[in-house]
Amino acid sequence: MGNWKIGFPEGLDSVTDYEDGKLLYDSYGVEPINLDSKMMCRAVGKVSSVVGSTLTLESINNYPNSSDTPFTPTNSSLEDDEYNNGFIRFLSGNCQNEVYKVSDTVSPDTLVSSDTFCSDGVSAGDYLEVVTGSCTFEFKLPRNPIRRDFKRQISISAVRFPYYSGGLVIPIGFQPDDYVFSVNMTEERDIDRLELFLNHHLDFKGFDGLYSTGYKFNNDDGLAPVVLETGTHDIKNQFLGTIEDYKIIKDAQRGDSFWEVLIHMKNYSRILYRGI
After folding, report:
1. Measured distance CA(148)–CA(183) in Å, rounded
2. Which CATH number is associated with domain 41-131?
3. Domain limits of the chain?
């Protein structure tokens, strides 16, 4: 059945206009949407020094990271360009909960932004997290999703509006489609990275969608959908949706390193069959 991926379009986190971000999803049913090749990564640390738009960090733990190393105390450095176009969220200090775009990552401990941290009140000792922008999670073979459930609910009622003597009837139509799939996982790094991705909601500029939509800025465009891709090199099936909820089950009877994940998506775009 081929490999499965779930992710965002390539370059979503580098566009400067919401309309340009939407165009990345518009392939007119001819070409597949190119998914971003970056992995979902996250690092936490403490500000050691701040100069203008440059942060130097200490007490770093970079996991899961682009090198795909296990969780250990030795993950204490960043890789060059690892979090470019991602974003920083401050966890403490004067800028707690504020989010900034990353323009450059310099190994082993430096993050650069186009914004000036000093004037906003960032100071040494503040804690932060930094995450990737647009990215893709690939389910490893042979443990691709083992079950898929698709449900469409049809609303047969209609709404009648007065219109001269006959009236105008508008059918309500379809409810949003439900798509649920389950997958078994046996690597702790994979389950940690997947859980991080499922909590990763972006807007149409690849920025923190929950922050730009509900906390700050006037983002009327809302959240960008994820792309679920299945199939082989000949035919790829893609459809758009939003992560509605997920459930992670750990069954001790199957071993200490066995997880079953149920992912529930709301689909508002038809499934697209494209030849490659």
Report:
1. 9
2. 2.40.10
3. 1-36+135-276, 41-131
